Amino acid sequence: MSTGVGVSECCLSGKIQQGTPKGSEKQIGGLDTYVAEPSDGSNAKVIVFLVDIFGWKLPNVRLLADSYAKAGFTAYVPDVHQGDSLPIDFLQTVEPPLPERESLTMTQKAASTAKVGATLGPWLVKHREGVSKPLIDDFLKAVRGSPGAPKVGVIGFCWGGRYAILAAHSDAVDAAYACHPSLVAIPGDFDPIVKPVSLALGTQDSLLGMKEVEQIKELLAKKDVENEVKLYEDQIHGFALRGDWSSDKDKKAMDDAEKQGIEWFKKHLA
Fold it and tell me: Which residues form a coiled coil (predicted)?
């Protein structure tokens, strides 16, 4: 029986990074796409970013795509929500960082949870798997079929993390990396994996408790395909993309998660 692991107010938390993305916007596979290219212009190794609920225009994801381009990858961030991502101002109005979250009263927590339900419920119905997965599959197919037959990796965050895992069910990609995925089904989303997959998970993620993490690790340990699960101490849901750069510990976790993905793809897209 599959255990569905859902979403919570943590999906709506985090910090906006400072900086100016250096890439451009293009149409790829029928979707508006942010493109960050390596200095040599090569598209032999492509990374497709599957975004969280805040979408392809979030500065954080574009700046991270720029970092992957500096590492030698062509990075694509498609608008898989088709203009319907949640507004960035939800980041702090719904859920504060971990220290503030822990100081909330029960009444404040209940109000936050109610607001999350009212916000996320209709959005998740509109962007359910039956709608979103075909868009993602078509985009990956278009990238895979582009000139030069590039090696293709996929990285996903939160909502997009699950779709990165699903992409590893077939030859749509050569490798996958999922950071704090949400809405995952255990064991249903992990049993069919046939491509190398890496996971970055926080120990304080309210969506994936340690019980679920251990279940995932046990499932992956039985597979012949290479995989890894790295835990980040005291990190909450969304840490790899929306961590607090003013905190040395949180910034290190973000940097280490970025390094984890780059090393994974350098190995499996070689």
Answer: none
